[in-house]
Amino acid sequence: MKRVLITGAAGFLGSHLCDRFYQEGYDLIAMDNLITGSMKNIEHLVDKDRFEFVNHDVSKFIKVDGNLDYILHFASPASPIDYLKIPIQTLKVGSLGTHNLLGLAKAKKATILVASTSEVYGDPLVHPQNEEYFGNVNPIGPRGVYDEAKRFQESMTMAYHRFHSLDTRIVRIFNTYGPRMRLNDGRVLPAFIGQSLRGEDLTIFGDGSQTRSFCYVDDLIDGIYKLLNTDYSGPVNIGNPDEVSISEFAKEIVKLTGTKQKVIYKPLPENDPLKRQPNIKKAKSLLNWQPKVSRSEGLKLTYEYFTSLSQEDLYKKEHNNFETYIKY
Ligand code: UDP
What we know:
CATH superfamily: NAD(P)-binding Rossmann-like Domain
Order of helices and strands: EHEEEHHEHEEHEEEHEEHEHHH
Bound molecules: uridine-5'-diphosphate
Number of helices: 10
Strand order of the largest sheet: 3-2-1-4-5-6-11
Number of domains: 1
Number of strands: 13
Helix content: 25-40%
Shape: globular
Distance between the termini: 40 Å
């Protein structure tokens, strides 16, 4: 049986990856330090035979007994609010954590796939963004801790590939949404849905003309699964090219949730990218992959998930474990 280590396993994407690899028959080691992740996301798996949960911070030495065929490195805070709260941990998990996992992959002769991000393109001057574009990142801005950690992660992964002939994959993930997102991480979709559920006004940052392109989580997971099953070591964009302005997106959420609240405007955060749209030519030709779920369909599924949660679970979605984390 193939054995896979998934880091960030209790997070939004990590937990969906756990589901997919469990369904595909893998033996899973799910690792998370539960700072931004939640056991709730994987509670349906914890008692299963082929599933083991390990509470560990991958920035520290990682010990895994037995063989490993694959490592999927998805541990990292992934929203601007999180990086502002835990900037040093964000830098460490992308750099030291990646280094530890590359070392582990080398020791186990495992294939490693690392989760990179459209943030490596920064506030892009090329539109839509293709993999050849080097990006426009401010290393010392508030997003720099994430962007530069991810850029370093890609660099380190390529170095292990070239120098140690390690079997590696890099996925550049564009904005993704779906069930299990946290309501309090500041991302626009959970922000708008949370505001609608609480009867608050919807907050648009800036004038709402900035764009994003949102991919439903099932499509993303499918792209990642396909990428792992190639032998392509270069970065591959996975995302949905259907681009929308944030003000248009707010209208869609108002329609979906039926909220009677108004839209209010707040200042645009520093270095907030003005445009973002993936060029997915490479994923199409290499993986024969493209997103299947439309935004209206995906938003409906996501809203249904949030409205199906109990009050207690909704509360938990709005609070996390930062306070239990030892800062250093
Ligand atoms: N945004 C917004 N209102 C909110 C939260 C976010 O207008 O309550 C904007 C944010 O400024 C950005 C876009 O929505 O332009 C997407 O933000 P998100 O944090 O979801 O993703 P990222 O900026 O990392 O792509």
